[in-house]
């Protein structure tokens, strides 16, 4: 994949260097320093000079750089760079120039373990921590070499077999982010869901977990669906998931890593249920005033509630004052941002609340047409999914047959991507 790996500081000094093949010399680092670090015009994360490509990611005050002369898979190279980032953070908290200098011996150990001849090998944090430690390595480590080999190359290299907990628990969080763009006439221009299923597994041994989703689950958008079917455009799984079983039965079967991990990521653009409906009526009264009437309605069960609801309502650039009237929440004009911020702490399902305001404008010699930016809406709704996806069951099987406690939580949210034009 790659021939060399470097970490530079912002001055272009090499902090870490490792050459994996003979097609490069260490002097290639000077090319990156001159052409990229010293060149403020460079904005692309991939720079090709001659036959050499530099893939670089800036993190705090350092550059993480991978170099190759082959036609490497760019996505894989960047995945490695970001994976290295996460591994470094798990070892020493923050990755910056000082941390690299203080832990350079450890970093060389990690880099040599993660990459073999320029190809990624084992990058599971739990496995790496089992035999690359920040403490001094005792001679007994040689006696454990057989266990290390199994962990590094076995089928479940993401989990140790000696994990023990007094209380066996599994927490599942289904987190969905709703993206909406609605026209002034109320037509939905875009409505989709970006989501992930986060899991925290505190389970003894090497348990087999089975995870079931909706009965009517369609992965292919062109597949047979319906108005009540959950249609996912695409989904990605953690490497522990047995994909062939999911293809056949739509059951997610896996041996989970110990602790927190992302089990699944998915996207949905069909049958998206919009949690909040916003109806704006905005009129320009001559050149001196703008009147606002906005209604917000919660489109979900009255047993649920939306929290931290924030509407950012734009005002013209020449606004002087805004007189706001609300029954629910608080509204305040923010001149520096040319918006009125309406905050509603809690909105019960089925509830409807209104906002009225009058913005006074100052007279200008050259009057420009107001562009009318969209209204931005932020919110969070617990125990609701906009895609309709639900967890039907989560079963844990382990040879000792212990009882486990399972928790499932749903969260639908929006932050800056739920927009209504007017």
From TrEMBL:
Q: Which Pfam families match?
A: Adap_comp_sub, Clat_adaptor_s
Membrane-topology descriptor: Peripheral membrane protein
| Compartments, record wording | Cell membrane; Membrane, Coated pit
Q: What is its main location?
A: membrane
**Which controlled-vocabulary keywords does the entry list?**
Cell membrane, Coated pit, Endocytosis, Membrane, Protein transport, Transport
Residue ranges of every copy of the MHD domain listed in the record: 167-421
InterPro entries on file = Adaptor_comp_med_subunit, AP2_Mu_C_sf, AP2_Mu_N, AP_mu_sigma_su, Clathrin_mu, Clathrin_mu_CS, Longin-like_dom_sf, MHD
Matching entries from PROSITE patterns are given as: CLAT_ADAPTOR_M_2, MHD
State the source organism's domain of life: Eukaryota
Coiled-coil residue spans: none
Gene Ontology terms: cellular component? clathrin adaptor complex; clathrin-coated pit; plasma membrane
Q: Name one GO biological process term.
A: endocytosis
Q: Which family does it belong to?
A: Belongs to the adaptor complexes medium subunit family.
Q: What is this protein called?
A: MHD domain-containing protein
Source organism per UniProt: Amanita muscaria (strain Koide BX008)
